[in-house]
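User: Once you have settled down, look closely at the record that follows, taking as long as you need, and be ready to discuss the fold:
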Amino acid sequence: MVERSQLLELTWDDFGGSFKYIIIDGRKIELCRILQRYLSQLYKEQKQNRVKKPYVLQLYYNKQYKPMKEWNINDIFDNFAKITNDEKWKNYSPKYLRCCLIKTLFSTGYSIEDIIYITGIDIKNLSNLIGTNEILERKIVR
């Protein structure tokens, strides 16, 4: 699984120039088209603004671009709760999104092996999110 610290260390070289894939911990993972498009747009904006540091996630503060810190990501999640008065935003966290991603990958047909490869999660932690009954149910349906 990509941790906040890994996200912050991402550089444009991690995408191989095409934005079709990202390489993390030796895993080459295909990115969806919308993410490819947004990354391409962000890359162009950083080039136009003459951002010198190669990091993907940066802040513009005091007329300078600086790499984001972990607490910046935490602030983003903390501010979700302030978007509206809806209580559901308070549930959003990196852990919650990680769980949703894994469950969504499984429900859309990704194999256990592919989920482990894409997310980097180990089988023990994966078993806390996807139960044996869900795996067996999928086998019975096929």
About this structure: The longest helix spans residues 33-48. The chain has a mean pLDDT of 86. The CA atoms of residues 8 and 57 lie 6 Å apart.
